[in-house]
Amino acid sequence: MNETAPWPAHGGQADALLARYGLPADHPLVDFSANLNPLGPPAWVPARLAELAAGLARYPAPDYAEARAAIARREGVGVDQVLLTNGGAEAIFLVAAASAGRRAAIVQPTFTEYARACRACGLAVDAISLAPPDFALDPERVAAQLGGCGLLFLCRPNNPTGTLVPREAVERLLALTEPLGCRVVIDEAFIDFVVEGDERLTPLLGRFPHLLLLRSLTKCYTLPGLRLGYLLADSQTVRRVGAHQPPWSVNHLAAELVAPLLDDGEFMARMRTWLLEERPRLALGLARRGLRVVPSRANFFLVRPALGPERLTGQSPRHTMPEPRAGRRGGHLPGMANVAPMEGFTAPPRRPVDGSTRVTGPAAMALVSTDALFERLLRCGILVRHTHNFAGLDGGWLRLALRDRADNDRLLAALSKEGEA
Q1: Which of 247, 255, 320, 393 could form a disulfide with 387 if both were Cys (CB 3.0 to 4.6 A apart)?
Q2: Is residue 164 part of a domain?
Q3: 149 & 296 share domain
């Protein structure tokens, strides 16, 4: 193992991790490190791209009028409130560039590109940290730490925790930041995976002109290689941010896919069914295998071995997930209702038939470090996302993407095997 090799900055970087652990480049892997929809891309995309190839000999329309109009229809906003971008990452960097010279605050742990964009554009950065295990956001506390900040970055649902700041808390935060002159940038790259009710914040744009929303079309449609995203804000902000965008930054193929992607209701319905079935099932399976699971509203989970005094003495914990918070759905987080049986989960640690005292099963998982679990899963053909470059997590957690049932079962089987090791 090459412990001096740097950890990759993003998911989906299998080659670097295989080299770090001395594994061959053809080591078979199922990738749980990238938060992409396993159902995509939609089946019609390859044929449509082939049809669009003739347009590669021409420059794209510089204003992307058709793509922006399609987004505006979906979101219920004016076309002048839409800026098409080369993925969500470009939108982040454009917002930072439009605020160069100011001070920014970032709610963390979160996506590392906010800080990188701020540094690249000369913004000083203040960190506002949320505490595990629930990573709850207190609007008053956040606002109190914004002295002198002209920009606030917030991810919702948050990457890597999967948590969703309630709409009421967002509205309160917006009300508190407006008199401070602080623009609030909310990255909703994973909002399409929140399928229990409509949690989009688009309706708030009319009430809060200092609100900017960032979206991605590459996560739910599984098109990260095309780079396609957009920004929503009031028209003046869109013009100001767009002034920093290079001409034709979005390629012809990506721009022409916007309208048909947004019109594909059948694909989104399939994704909703998958999420409602697999997300609670995998959450329960992970918890039953001795992992603490942060309740997620996205297509991934943040987990760690459920360390605690009761684990280290070989006794079973009462549960391995944080207590559910009161909410609209019977006291449980939406989409996590099937996890409720964990409240009474008391599976005893299994012991070998030879009568020895070696602890196996879920209790044994507590004795495994996060890095050791990462390596053992990798050697079993499961690539998960480390958290060494997420400030506030510092490698103590792992992020697992939600995949199809067969892959999820393979992950659970590997974790069961780990508990027997």
Answers
A1: 393
A2: yes
A3: no
